[in-house]
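User: Hey, my collaborator sent me this sequence without any context and asked if I could get a structure. I don't really work with proteins. Can you help?
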Amino acid sequence: MENKSNKKFMISCKEATMIVVKKAAINVTFSERLKLFLHLLICQYCRLFEKQNKIIDNIVSNWKTNKKLSSKQKNALKLKIESEIK
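Assistant: No problem. I've predicted the 3D structure and written it out in structure-token form, which is a compact way to encode the shape of the chain:
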């Protein structure tokens, strides 16, 4: 028989990614933060997703909507993102 208290704190990757996205937009509850923390301890893929999501959020928050990037700027941005996720 599975321990129900463990089940409450063990969330799926889908739930973890939803909390990561929610955390970037609004405050999350202590319970959600704890569940995410525990999940990130064991899941390297969700840790990577959280890192990538932070990078994308920073880029988007600093984005100027009326400007277009040149090819040189796009390549520089691509290199920066790739270096940040390694």
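In plain terms: Residues 4-85 form one domain. You can pass these tokens on to your collaborator as they are.
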